[in-house]
Write a structure and sequence with these properties.
The chain has 578 residues and is of the alpha+beta class. The chain has 8 helices and 31 strands. The chain has 4 domains: 169 residues, no CATH class; 135 residues, Cupredoxins -  blue copper proteins (Immunoglobulin-like); 117 residues, Immunoglobulin-like; 124 residues, Sandwich (Immunoglobulin-like).
């Protein structure tokens, strides 16, 4: 069982334990003795089972078990002891066991809510608030059931509850948000020279045709995707962005292209959003060959989904052979691109540039020929070998370049089982094909660094963020949401290591602006294949990734999940150079 499955199992067991104790208490209050004893037995078994899952999670990494071991376990133990000792001496009237059983249920529920609403890191304040809530619920149950204990016990419980509430509230009070510096150390983009490739992109509302029907969209130059921008290494690109009528503003972020910070297109960080009637000129040198894409970073969860994206391809030399870009996107429930058939001569070299512009992972399968994965996220792989009848999973924002020599028989590319590109009719069932693991593909090389100057751990979760002015339930990093996540501060030349841990039950495709990161390990398994320099990678439930990079591009950089709805719910922070 992997760590993600353990997280899910622990959650289910916690629900069973709390529900069992609460159900037993309710049945006891109704004097349904057999039902109360049966549910109590289920709750007791679930509580013991949770001790096993918490231990296993702690062995997988303290990030996964901190609040469970420090808060949930003591609460559950207290509830079990109170309920268990009472059950060992059951009187004739089962109703007298109702409050102890309910107390165990409240303790289990409180422990569960600590995980669901707070998560990582474990907090003494949140633990005390849980204790206050459990005791308050217990006192209310005494009153409702008319089984109040002695006045001394009542006073003691009340004092403990109030003390826990006051102390817990003080410890959990919001802290101040980090102060962002104004001097970001931007590189001056004007030093790149005179432009050799000029483009104009006009953002506006539009109606586009998808799968035979009209769809309302936001588009660059009235098309989805926007125009494909191409260049050769050494070119200087100048892209003029104009906003015709997108009321919430637009920018251009060059996804995966490590541009100077001033050209990165993040509103509120590197520039202001371009409002209707305004324009902004981006200029940078095309010094990275590979497959990239661009998209708005203003209100990106809405703008990208509605169509404000396009392809950027930089080639080392003019194109030879067949070179096809396949940007996959979901627009108004319809999948793009529209399927295309393009006959190719036998022996012709073919390169498919696969781009995932959605916020979730897609599964790609090339049927009818062997192929090599020659590049991922714009970086060439070392020693890629031919594979056949094998699928690849591309995370949100990610890109894979596949190459093959056209055979005499047709070839087809399937995305999630749907053919989007082919050289002729192909019938193939690809859903059972194995998935290529890029960490073991190609020829390995040693890690170029023997030390790390900066170490950061990012623990991804969901929870109630209490640090801001108003609490909100969002996607958290180290227990907080944007803008209350402290920035990561590095110095020029530092070798920086990230440990990224996913405690949640959903996938988080991680994306650092301005830098590619070298994958060191995933779930404590080191990379054995070609060095992987990525800008987008899926951190699945229970995953622990270690990645590193050299801090060589000064500025203030966004570092976020590329499921853009998660960004809107708080899962973004900043990397800044001191």
């Amino acid at each position: 069982m992997n760590t993600g499955s353990l997280l899910a199992a622990d959650l289910v067991i916690a629900v069973l334990a709390a529900a069992g104790w609460l159900g037993a208490g309710t049945a006891s209050a109704a004097r349904r003795r057999p039902l109360a004893l049966g549910l109590a037995a289920v709750a007791l078994l679930a509580t013991f089972a949770r001790a096993i899952t918490i231990t296993a999670l702690a062995r997988a990494g303290w990030w996964f078990a901190a609040e469970k071991a420090l808060i949930a376990a003591p609460l559950s133990l207290a509830g079990t002891l109170v309920a268990g000792t009472r059950l060992l001496r059951i009187p004739g009237d089962i109703r007298s066991t109702a409050v102890p059983l309910l107390f165990a249920g409240y303790a289990g529920l409180g422990a569960l809510l600590v995980t669901l609403l707070h998560g990582y890191p474990a907090s003494a304040g949140v633990g005390l608030l849980a204790v206050a809530g459990i005791l308050a619920a217990t006192v209310a149950s005494w009153r409702v059931l008319g089984t109040r204990p002695s006045p001394m016990v009542s006073r003691a419980v009340a004092v403990v509850a109030v003390a826990a509430l006051v102390t817990g509230t003080g410890l959990a009070a919001p802290g101040s948000a980090p102060v962002m510096p104004h001097d970001h150390g931007y590189r001056d983009a004007r030093t790149v020279g005179e432009p050799t490739r000029r483009f104009t992109l006009t953002a506006g509302t539009a109606t586009v045709r998808v799968s035979g029907r009209d769809v309302a969209a936001w588009a660059f130059n009235e098309q989805v995707p926007g125009p494909e921008l191409t260049a050769t290494v050494g070119d200087v690109l100048e892209v003029t962005l104009r906003n015709r009528d997108i009321a919430r503003g637009v920018t251009l972020h060059w996804h995966g292209y490590d541009v100077p910070n001033s050209q990165d297109g993040v509103p509120g960080v590197t520039q202001a959003a371009v409002l209707p009637g305004q324009e902004f000129v981006y200029r940078f040198r095309a010094d990275q060959a590979g497959t990239y894409w661009y998209h708005t970073h203003a209100v990106s969860d809405v703008g990208v989904q509605k169509g404000l994206y396009g392809v950027l391809v930089v080639r080392p030399v003019p194109v030879t052979g067949v070179d096809v870009t396949v940007p996959v996107h979901t627009l108004a429930g319809q999948t793009l691109p529209t399927p295309r058939v393009e006959p190719v001569g036998v022996g012709e070299p073919v390169r498919l540039r696969l781009i995932n512009t959605d916020s979730t992972t897609h599964r790609y399968a090339l049927a009818g020929t062997a192929f090599r994965v020659v590049a991922i996220d714009g970086y060439d792989l070392q020693g890629p070998t031919p594979v056949v009848d094998t699928a690849v999973l591309i995370p949100a924002g990610g890109r894979y370049d596949l190459v093959f020599t056209a055979p005499a028989t047709p070839v087809a590319l399937f995305v999630d089982g749907r053919a989007v590109y082919s050289t002729g009719p192909v019938s193939a069932a690809t859903d059972r094909w194995p998935v290529l693991d890029p960490l073991g593909y190609g020829v390995g090389a040693p890690v170029p660094w023997s030390r790390f100057d900066r170490d950061f751990t990012l623990v991804l979760d969901r929870g109630l963020d209490l640090r801001g002015l108003l609490p909100r339930y969002g996607h958290t990093v180290n227990g907080a949401t944007d803008p209350d996540i402290p920035p990561q501060v590095v110095r020029l030349g530092d070798i920086v290591r990230f440990t990224i841990v996913n405690r949640s039950m959903v996938v988080h495709p991680w994306h650092l602006h301005g830098h590619h990161v070298l994958v060191l390990s995933r779930n404590r398994t080191s990379v054995t294949g070609s060095p992987l320099w990525l800008d987008s990678f899926d951190v699945r439930p229970g995953d622990v990734w270690e990645v590193a990079f050299r801090a060589d591009n000064p500025g203030m950089w966004a570092n976020h999940c590329h499921n853009l709805a998660h960004v809107d719910a708080g899962m973004t922070l900043h990397l800044m150079y001191s």
